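Predict the structure of ImmA/IrrE family metallo-endopeptidase.
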Amino acid sequence: MSYGQDTARQAAREILTEFGVEAAPVPVERIIKKKCIRLQFSPLDEALSGMAVIKDDVAVIGVNALHHPNRQRFTMAHELGHHILHREHLIGTVHVDKGFAVFIGGQRAMLRDEKSAEGTDIMEIQANAFASELLMPSFLIEKLIDLSSFGLEDVDQLNALAKRFKVSPQAMQYRLMAFN
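Done. Here is the predicted structure for ImmA/IrrE family metallo-endopeptidase.
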């Protein structure tokens, strides 16, 4: 079951077309501002990635200013996904996206909250699919690499591609795995 992931990816592709995006990195901040959504960066609790709300007809995306810029980009794209896909759920209600920190191989990683990590919250699944397609569009990935010969285990190659798209290597790895 896709939980509306195809619809979410299509919505992201429509945004990319609307804004004439033809190269990486995708200018997610510019897109948000052109969509008349107020973007606010504030130091938040470490576990809080971002939030989305519409109050008094003002759309707002809040982003944790303490997170890495790549994480902030994904949060912005994810919250934009909520504004595009779930607008009616944001009116007068603050939608908060929490993550939690874990250590993987000695490296600190921010993961989604337990419900999101389980892959059971349909709105979160859709917002993640939207964010992935927005920041790492299929058409740009296919232009840059030969998917049939790209090695997901090649750390240098993965890091270089992630750097080009201004996303984390983990986000790029998950995105590329979706092609298989």
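Strands lie at 37-42, 48-55, 58-64, 95-104, 107-112.
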